[in-house]
Amino acid sequence: MPGWLKDAVFYEIYPQSYCDSNSDGIGDFQGIITKLDYIKSLGCNALWINPCFDSPFRDAGYDVRDYKKAADRYGTNEDLIRLFQEAHARGIHVLLDLVPGHTSEEHEWFQKSCALERNEYSDRFIWTDYCFRGTGNMGYPYVGGEAERPGTYLLNFFKCQPALNYGWLHADENWKCTVDSEAARSTIEAIKDVMRFWMDRGCDGFRVDMASSLVKGDDEKKTGTSRIWREIRNMLDQDYPECALVSEWSNPSLSLRAGFHADFVLNEPNSPYSTLVRDYQNHAGRIIHSDPCFTGADPECAAEYEDHSFFKMDAGGDITCFMDWYLERYQDTKDIGYMSLITCNHDTVRPSFNLSERELKLFYAFLFTMPGVPFLYYGDEIGQRYQNLRTKEGGYFRTGSRTPMQWSREKNLGFSDADAACLYLPVDPAQDAPVVSEMMQDADSLLGTVRSILALRHKEEDLQGQPNLEVLYQKKGELPFVYRRGNRICAVNPSSKTVSAPIDAEDRKPVWQVGAGNLKDGVLTLKPQSFIIL
Ligand code: NOJ
User: Fold this and answer.
1) How much distance in Å is there from the Cα of 428 to the middle of ligand 1?
2) What pTM does this model have?
């Protein structure tokens, strides 16, 4: 386990939209470099940069055309290496986004794989043996009719993203390879080679896209895929022991055993993360989904749903929906790795969509006082707003969470000097769009709250990644929610009423607070919409 993860707080950067240093309307590496001091001042000491490699950008870069080449729009490999160096000089680690499950259909491997004549890449992707063989009945989307080669190929996500071949758990048809086949082995080695390439140039690890998607026909326990990750982790442990691996899997019991150091808790159908901040329900019950209908981003659909999110004031939210799920996984994995709670990401409607600034403060205070390795999505520290926009680069509803960072009241809110019409995405047009420069002056702002809670986390080991969580008061439909981290007691009350709970501990006053509360004579009392650390 890389030691630096214990006190790591990540900042996710969507590079298109962070800072444009050369006035071409899109963010770049040099722009990120100029903001490293700001990132550090927030209390973030690690970055995750969304894919920044050569790509036709049909899925915002998750369709990689060349794993070893930085995309021209962001700069050169040398610029990216300089970004690693500048980050390291400030004590910031950098994770790149590894997309091992698929490439772009424009990747040279895939182009060669399409050829009629057999070649080195014929089996790098998953091809059936017949031009009319569908794989829909096996649960996999496929494409036919595009290549010279008389077969169909499997997709991993969009049509532009053919699935790399890591074999099948049961190769029960002659066109399927096993996990041990030469074809699967060569894919594994090719991905290891990519990881080595960037590790040798100074990156500190990888956020791994769709980490569970490698082996096809895998069992529930992901036996085949897990074996591959364990092999990769062994390679890293030996050659790059400080390299961190964070999975997009949302199943810590499997992913951490497969060798990941941390796994995201996401708004997947199988995880109630969404009940914290986007718990939409109608008469038919709760809907946990990231579709805008269900997040409320589409006003017409939203009219049908009520928001019962825990952090929404008086929405009747219930922390046990999340905590029961979380604690089961926490108990199972606390000694082998971390769970990563996120404010949001590039795939999700921003939490400011339905939460007020005060509600966001309570939500972030919770995230940043829980164990594990937390992630802050750029712009969430100022409550940047979700925008209703047309799709860009395969973003669809996600596009609204990918707009330019709002730095100041200057041109394009300080993101770029280009003409507004040339921007990658428009900036928030609202007069009162939140901006960094103004919030920096105000310790009580959302930004000020993020900075002070992160400063406390770094100062007090008890509040960092380690597994010292103990729930002190958590009752279905009741408030407050109270938990202990070592010597500290944290309590939250998102409602508009003063609440209290019996807590068996000596009298204490807050060392950090939003709102007010205390612990006296065995009773913890919390004022409306408050979070305290005692
Ligand atoms: C998950 C990424 O977060 C998302 O943005 C992307 O579209 C898919 N994986 C496909 O790579």
Assistant:
1) 24
2) 0.97
